[in-house]
Amino acid sequence: MKYFIHGDELRKISSLSDADSWLNASFSTINSGGICWIDTRESNWQKVVRDVVAVEISPVVVSYQPDIKEMQGSLLLGARAYCNATEVFRHCEAISQAITAGGLWIPGGLVTAMFHRLSEHPGYTLREDSGEVLTEREREILQLLLKGESNQQMSETLNITVRTVKEHMSSILKKYRVKDRVALLLKIGRFNSAPQ
Questions:
Q1: Confidence band (pLDDT; 50, 70, 90) for 2?
Q2: How many helices (H) and strands (E) does the chain have?
Q3: What is this structure's pTM?
């Protein structure tokens, strides 16, 4: 198993004792070529992403100023994860698990923004009858989700706790028999080949 870090700042933090869980997650979970954590402040980070993909290493793009365009570009280059540099240690194990399972990992705030962008796409239309019976509160949560609100924003809009928002979201996902918000978006609507 190989382990790589690209970027001076990442090299510094990789030697710290509190990086142990990060290092262990990288070493223990990928059976192919390893994980390469790539710092976007490096001038050639996009080339590094392409290069490591070519040798079957899973790139994780680490950004100090995360935004949706940079994330989308990273994923198009072949990155398997996109992470805020200030949260690398907190999410390293989840990132490694997602990659191991064949998935992608992106931060929740950017998932919300991406969800909103997809729902606003001119070719996206909601299905008229999804067949699922939602409570009034669940319908409100779903509408706020389609507007791109985060759990925190929904809790403030509806004057409920974030935990209650999460419980309603879990109930919505369960009723639609989907695991995440992107799958929910695909289940409740469809993308037409031509915008209407």
A1: very low
A2: 10, 6
A3: 0.57
